[in-house]
Amino acid sequence: MIIPISDPSDPRLDPYLRLKDVRLRRQVEPEQGLFMAESAEVIKRALDAGIEPISMLMSSKWLTNLSGLIGGLDQAVPIYVGEEALLQQITGFHMHRGAIAAMRRPNLPSLDAVMADAKRLVIIEDLVDHTNLGAIFRAAAGLSVDAVLVTPHSADPLYRRSVRVSMGTVFQVPWTRIDPWPGALELLRQAGFTIGAMALTDQAVNLDDFAKNLPDRLALMVGAEGDGLTAHALSEADVVIQIAMSGGVDSLNVAAAAAVAFWATRPKPGAQAY
Questions:
Q1: What number of other Cβ atoms are within 10 A of residue 111's Cβ?
Q2: What CATH homologous superfamily does 2-104 map to?
Q3: pTM check: above 0.85
């Protein structure tokens, strides 16, 4: 249902107000049970994953280009359409990706449900940068990681920037919060997971060597930007793993390091147990 808009104070547009205010959005979106999906591709991935759209906001000049996306929505879903200057006034940024949608935040599955069929998963500890978080989800989807576990103090995977950087793969890879942390790691160990911590320590084994004999079920832990994994998390690991570096560089950005680890530990036919 296409609805022209001209008033930025229209209460129907409240979900789209001040989208660049990270502190506000971290509080408002979970409280209201919604999240924002930006760009046609991301919105389509959310819809394909069965996530319920609440409404959409878009520039009038994109109506024709996005007709296929609009046609796939229930006719009862309001599509607010206005000029670009008005949309920028509402959201706080130039919407050059054409459209943004308010979506119903799905209920998170249980830890047991997420890890039930997983052979390889990643645990993200206390990561606060939404760009890195989204990039890890995208790497997980592209490199066949079965699930993602996010600690209680990590950023929200459904925050707009994280969703956009992930290109909507946050809807594709099963994920949930792992809590209590790190106590819940024992549940993974009981389920047969080997817990590998990505960190620089004197006891770390080279990733290439570790990848020669992969465990049947592997949970890779990556930590926050700068500080890396906490001492408590490291103490719970079965093995510490590091990427061999050169050129005087000691480590990679967490998202890049995760992608390298996902590639190196991808399932290989005929691999022996670690």
A1: 18
A2: Ribosomal protein L30/S12 (3.30.1330.30)
A3: yes
